[in-house]
Amino acid sequence: MTQILLPELGEGITKATVACWHAKPGDVVQAGDDIVEVVTDKATFNVEAPVSGQLETIHIDEGKEGEVGGILGTIKQV
Description:
Blueprint: E1 2-5, E2 15-21, E3 28-29, E4 34-39, E5 44-48, E6 53-58, E7 65-67, E8 71-76
Antiparallel strand pairs: 1-8, 2-4, 2-7, 3-6, 4-5, 6-8
C-alpha cells in the first residue's frame, strides 16, 4: 500500500484543506493523475497519485484540514 502525502506547498505553509477528491475508494488511478485538490490561504494545488493502482482509503475528507507530510489517503497497487 502506498500513502498519498500532502506535499510541501511553499515556504511557511504547514496546512491545507482538501477541496475535492477526483477519485473515490475503489477507483483505479494512474501514477501522475491529479487525485486530490487542496487549498491554502494563498493558492490551490493538485496532488498527483504517486503510483498506479486502486484508491483504497481517504484519510482526510473534503472540507477537512491536513498538515504537510500527513497522509491524505492510500493506494493499493494491483
